[in-house]
Amino acid sequence: MPKQVDYETRRRHIAEAVCDLIDRHGPEGATLRDVAQQAGVSMGAVQRCFATKDEMLAFALHRITERITAQGHEEINASTAKESAVTLLTATLRTLALIEPHQRRDARIMAAFTAHATAIPSLAEILRQAHAKTRDLLAWLIRYGQQTGEFRDDLDAALEAETLLPLVEGLTALALLGHRPTVPAHDTLTRRIDGLLMQPSRPGRSASSTAIV
Amino acid sequence: MPKQVDYETRRRHIAEAVCDLIDRHGPEGATLRDVAQQAGVSMGAVQRCFATKDEMLAFALHRITERITAQGHEEINASTAKESAVTLLTATLRTLALIEPHQRRDARIMAAFTAHATAIPSLAEILRQAHAKTRDLLAWLIRYGQQTGEFRDDLDAALEAETLLPLVEGLTALALLGHRPTVPAHDTLTRRIDGLLMQPSRPGRSASSTAIV
DNA sequence: GCTGATATGATGCAACCGCATCGGAAAGTT
DNA sequence: AACTTTCCGATGCGGTTGCATCATATCAGC
């Protein structure tokens, strides 16, 4: 038998190259040739890993959505249950909103894929599933906060999560474009979380009242 | 002197063709040849109107952002001041969120330009200005509602507007991808508006309590 | 009714795209 | 060592891209 190769590892490596190029040169930058060069392999290797370019993009998108949602779960699992639901939800939202400078790469990639998904249904499906997962995660966090008595139990967790999801997505897009908000994006999130609290703090000090880390 | 043509009119006509193509064939569909054919003019005519393709895209983006914000203002001007601030804000948000089927075209175009703006600063600047205008419009509406006594006057209108803006943007993106929310997007908006009310309705009937039209 | 400036549309061009193909290198079996 | 099978990198191909060029059609002024 000839030389054997771990295709799954290679696929992941190529997917990383795809993300790098989309980040640096925009949505159009991910050509097969450039991807191959970025990944340090030949163009033929890329073609053997993915039957078509769309398949390559779909794999890369699946990878990055899983990575982002995994980061969201990390915030929870790493807490060892000793942290409050407010802290958990705040940290999770900040992670998912991709507003920190070090998350700019992920934000650009997601924006590029969102626009591309307009024309490619398979990509749209991946994004839909990712958003549904995120929403369910947020709903779970809210219910958890209700159990701990931190959040108002007259709230419908599913409804609140359905509001937080577009808020997070919108913050990502605005931050990516360099939108200069009158108030920092993370304050917008904490203000929103205040609305969930059992004893909401009064406006004016709400942003700092739930400050974390 | 030879035949004279109204260049501004032609530029607008071509910009419309650009939007049509982006809507139908995605962000990549706006090639010079296809744009010319869609507009019913020759390729040379397109090139004479715009020095470069990016300039053409920037003009088209400027046009569509102005059109969308104008629709937002229309909701207000057409009201002859006899409508409540709640009704006005609700109608404006629904218009700007681009969630109705007939707005799908605008939503796709905006998504495509948002992703493209990642790589082209001039486009990003246009979008930044558009978002700032939208935010200021929302802040104005909230202050108006505070004057009429409909909205809580302990709220900072600017802060609330800074929350509504990403919410609207996020709803646009999610609706475009075909996200199936557990609750309709326009209910999410009305629920959010409820939070601004002087006497907020209790959860469970909030969505219907501010129903309009 | 010339004349000449100007708008026009077709064509050319170099570069790049995604995808297909193919000769040969590499590795395990006998 | 010879063979077979799998993988690899390079090259080719048809098509498309944005942009430049150029002969022609068109109209105001004399």
What is the structure about, briefly put?
2 copies of one chain form a homodimer. The first copy, chain A, is 69% helix and 0% strand.
Q: What's the topology here?
A:
2 copies of one chain form a homodimer.
Chain A: H1 7-25, H2 32-39, H3 43-49, H4 53-77, H5 85-97, H6 104-117, H7 121-147, H8 157-176, H9 185-194, H10 206-209
Chain B binds a DNA duplex (30 and 30 nucleotides) through helix 2 and helix 3.
Radius of gyration of chain A over alpha carbons?
A: 20 Å
The helix tally of chain A amounts to 10
Structural class of chain A: mainly alpha
The CATH architecture designation of the largest domain in chain A is Orthogonal Bundle
Give helix % range of chain A: 55-70%
Question: The biggest beta sheet of chain A, please?
Answer: none
Folded structure, characterized:
The structure is a homodimer of 213-residue chains. Chain A is mainly α and 213 residues long. Chain A has two domains: 1-50, Arc Repressor Mutant, subunit A; 53-209, Tetracycline Repressor, domain 2, CATH 1.10.357. Helices cover 69% and strands 0% of the residues of chain A. In chain A, helix 2 (32-39) packs across helix 3, helix 4 (53-77) packs antiparallel against helix 5 (85-97) and helix 7 (121-147) packs across helix 8. The radius of gyration of chain A is 20 Å and the shape is elongated. Residues 204-213 of chain A have low confidence and may be disordered. Chains A and B meet through helix 6, helix 7, helix 8 and helix 9 of A and helix 6, helix 7, helix 8 and helix 9 of B. The structure holds a DNA duplex (30 and 30 nucleotides).
